[in-house]
Amino acid sequence: MRTPLRIRTLVARRCGFTIVELLAVVVIIAALATIAIAKFGDSKRRAYIAAMKSDLHNLGMTAESKFAAENSYAAVEVPRGSAGVTLTFAGDATKWSASATHDALPGFECTIRSGGGIDAEPICR
């Protein structure tokens, strides 16, 4: 049985999307955006913490180099930290400790001290 010509031409002329199809696409895009925001929303905080840890590691290397040269941690010159990072250092003849804070993370601090070896990981709270 053949389809009447009038129905075939109506079907052939249909173009564009229905509102239901467009709504389904919008819902899918919103779900993907929600997942992306949840996954990458904390990336700035993690980057600030990584900068503080890196600066503390560099400060520890500086302190250990000074100790190797002079057998003392006293008067270690604190290197300049990354943008927004403030470093503090306390050392005497046999031991040292250092801390780092970031302007964007008030109340958050990373610390490291001697005795942990060259690969000691800073502790952040």
Structure, explained:
The chain is α+β, with helices and mostly antiparallel strands. The termini are far apart. The model has no long low-confidence stretch (mean pLDDT 88). The protein has two domains: 36 residues; 82 residues. The relative contact order is 0.13. Helices cover 47% and strands 17% of the residues. It has a four-stranded antiparallel β-sheet with strand order 1-2-3-4, with helices on one face.
Percent helix: 40-55%
Total helical segments: 3
The poorly predicted ranges are: none
The fraction of residues assigned to DSSP E strands is 15-25%
Number of domains: 2
Rg from alpha-carbon coordinates = 30 Å
Shape: rod-shaped
Report the major sheet.
Answer: 4 strands, antiparallel
Mean pLDDT: 88
The helix/strand order is HHHEEEE
Calculate the terminal CA-CA distance, rounded to whole Å.
Answer: 78 Å
How many E-type strands?
4
Q: Which class of secondary structure composition applies to the elements?
A: alpha+beta
**Strand order, largest beta sheet:** 1-2-3-4
What's the gist of this structure?
The protein has 2 domains: 5-40; 43-124. Helix content is 47%, strand content 17%.
Main traits of this protein?
single chain, 125 residues, alpha+beta, 4-stranded antiparallel sheet, 4 strands, 47% helix, 17% strand
Write the layout of secondary structure elements.
Layout: H1 5-13, H2 19-40, H3 43-70, E1 85-91, E2 96-102, E3 109-113, E4 123-124
Antiparallel strand pairs: 1-2, 2-3, 3-4
